[in-house]
Amino acid sequence: MAFIYNLQSCNPSLYPDINDLGNQTPHPYTNQIVYIDLTPVNPTRTYKLVSVAIAKVYSQVLPPLQATELTTCADVIADRLWKLINCDTGEEIRVYVTNLTPLQGTTVSISAFCGCWLVDSQVSVADYSLTVTQTYSNCDDCLIGITNPIALAEQRTLSYAVKLRLPEETPVDRGFSKCCYENLVLADTASDDPFKNDFSGAYYKKQAASDTVTFKLVDVATTTEYNLNTGTYGTYQAFGGVQPDLSFVIVDWKLVLTGLGAGAYQIKKELSIGGITVNKYSDTYTLKQFSQAVADNTVRIDSFMDGKLVKQDVDFAATGYKTSMRLRGFFGRAEYSFEQDNIARRDYSYLQNTMSSKREYQFQGLQLPECITDELWNFILFGNELFISDYNGNNHSYKYELIPVKLEGNKGTEFFVTDRGVNVNLTFSDRVENNRKLNC
User: CATH number of the domain at 179-290, please?
Assistant: First the structure.
């Protein structure tokens, strides 16, 4: 699914609307006045970004956008487009000034470019969108202003930088279709049975002391947001818990179904990382009322995390963090292996000493997209405790409910030429192996 938008032209006589544009997540600039942020930048070509629908098919991907300070299409921004000339080298650049209206003949210092720049003349398009950091009456005053702080520094100061990691950008769409996959979550408003009620976790580990995170639940159809930091729809842990740099939520989908109803939802993380504001959205969850018919052909893995993930540098020790994942697939086909220890007598007869058996299960996830397999392989399976439940009607046993298991191995992933979905094949065994008989 994609979110469909139209870019409504603020001046249709000069440039037309651009319709039927797809975006993988709700766009933060919805209903705002924007311009297309592609070189050369032309902030005078403004549009209103209007949400249209949610659909699978669209004509093209929504281009990168930049929000303006305009509240309506009637506002004017042309006086922020200028040619600047470097006071020292004579280099010329065309810029759109985002934070103020420069005066012709003055000199400015600007973000992303060193030195002083003379405000020369107005232009119609720009190569850069920049912020003016300081204004001066002429080039001499500017050069003195930016060099004085360096000249007055009489000593060297040892300082340290904090390395920050921003959330990864969504990979570029290469135009190759992926399988139609529904990220299903189920709940039962009439039952507290864990087998019928799914849950989903989301977390953030603080990188700098000033970092903040606000978890929200987004109704995809209406774009309405519900605060998850209150614990109304599950468990919330603020910074300062057992792991002081870790904050997380565990969404109880039964509470969501009871309070908000079935539908499509995303978990949104509003992050401030080292002063940089970033919004990160989960994949879309499709919430439905539990029934055997709806749950058929699915498997759920519950992962309870306790310990440090070194690569991610996140410590879950003693936090009680957990999450579940419901997949298209199958779990079962238990194969028993037996081991008997015998005592040999002098008359060559044997006496049973111990007898034990072990069950090994087959798991297959069917036509899984990369966003699902990445979480499965790199997070879910790292859980200290794993529980698997099978919901298939066509299964030898209906007793596979919250079975405590341990991972035995990977039997190989099936990749296909015609699409990007894969079949995952894993083996599990009982986490507790106490099916034993002792004769001593």
Answer: 2.60.40
